[in-house]
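quick one: zinc ion bound model?
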Amino acid sequence: MLSCPPYLSLLRAYVDFTLFSGEDCLMKDSRIRNVAQAFALLLLLFPIGRLSAQQPRQINTRRANSSKSTDSRPRLVLLIVVDQFRYDYLTRFGDLFGPRGIGRLMRQGASWTETNFDHVPTFTAPGHAVFMTGAWPSQTGIIANEWYERDTGRRVKSVTDDSTNKLAGNPGEKGYSPRRLLCSTVGDELRIADGDRSKVIGISAKDRSAILPSGRRANAAYWFGTDNGNMVSSTYYFSREPEWVERFNGRHLADHWFGVHWDRLLPEAEYLKRAGKDDVPWENLDKSSNDTNFFPHVITGGAANPSRSFYKALDYTPFSNDLLVAFAEDAITNEKLGDDTDTDLLTVSFSANDYVGHRFGPYSQEAMDMTLRVDRQIGTLLDFVDAHVGLQNTVVIFSADHGASPVPEQAALMNLPGRRYQKADLRQLVEDELKASYARKDRPANDYSQTFTSRGQTEAGLINNNFYLNRAALKRDGIDLDECERVVGELAMRMPGVARYFTRAQLENNLVSPADPIARRVLNGFYPVRSGDVIVVFEPYNILFDLPEDPTDPLSTATHGSPYSYDTHVPLIIMGRDFARGSYSQAATPADIAPTLAGLLSLQAPSCSVGRVLSEALINNKITRGRVRQ
Ligand SMILES: [Zn+2]
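yep, here:
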């Protein structure tokens, strides 16, 4: 963590610190924090003229509408997720953050320095399902962004629901829903507890990142439709989008960014110092976009006017986040979020940081610029919440769904063991050898890998480092499934870069130890009905690249999904009047958010919650065993 002089830490306890230069300075431990609180109390009792003069921006309580007095219970819970935000972005760029966004959360919130996801694969959908359920994929059932569905013989997304239609998208297009999420969320429990008076809304550029955190009983989830630039939704929630959403879409806000230049927020010297050169050979770019791999980026998607290729290109820019902020502000106003004492929940997930990270990697000038800009964008949103709800009536949670691995070629130049593998090569190796292992005259053994349909194509066997076996074919030929899993695992180990394999039989029969950190993460990511029969884990910085979920998306330069810290270590900051500001070094996970909120709001914990209450930051030890002490 960043260091700061002790006297500065003390002063920062209850004083607004924008006057001091080290904005990223966090208190180091609870001992300092306690001393700081005592010192701050003295300041309150015996005001010192000089220090009083340095308090022009006392913590946020003045700026809210005077009618928004402080209530006994938060009026609004605001979950802010930045997709693919590594923990080290706080330390690499934190001193460049502004006073209102992530910088404000770092100074005024409780920040955990050792927060890790404890599951693999560290992908968007599984990560987003954790925040408000407090549970791992082994319980939520959200094991990946997409998986092979054994019942229907097809590849499905985490939010696929053909019983719904998309709203504000293409006519007749199928919609999405949270029906594959098996656990309740904080939002669900809120609405169940108060007869649906609480409002719960999810917003993101990605469907899964809007739908999964808000939960099954949410009022609505909205995401960015790249077909037409609308904020779209699903008939799962209502038969027609609310009027205010139709008005928002009628403004065609996305089109305002057509042809806009995206340039650096700060002088290039800062970027050269912290992120290296801009124009590097490994940065991938879709050649059809008419863009370059260096600043400034011109945003047209190669189109002559706003159309699908432009809207997809917009996803890869900071302006996509601006659109989400504008939409979230409209949601707060029109849905009257935080307007009464029935606590509402708004989840906002900024996806563009992930798209940019995939294209340029975590050590790029673009990733750095996205980080600086999302800080400002979060600042705009927090200012709006302050003005309309009052931050004193709001609990703000800031985290990320996963980190990111360096671009393998760049990692190799850093003397890290970076190497890139293609999914097709691993699949081919295993397929060929599997046939050779089992083939006999009367048994061609050519169908032991499970085939399935995916976007109208037939695909075989391997998704998300999971091998799926054709159990019916194995049974037909009298081959033991457990044995075949071991054979596949051993064959996969012949591929350079493969570190370990885990079989379904091992995981289902508790034959791996949770004390083994990699095994525990695989176990937490395994749900038998949906997961594969053999799961492969690569060595650090060795990455298997899959085709993008949407075939019209560019191939990824960098990615995430491993059990290693560059993918699991994420920020966790909670800002609210019940949380003591400061830096906490206790181990935490994003699964701790939901039980902490449930306790704070006196709710039944979400159904699968396994996280712990983050009691070290709760003021006055307010929560005892998940209950608020009255
Ligand atoms: Zn993600």
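The longest strand covers residues 160-167.
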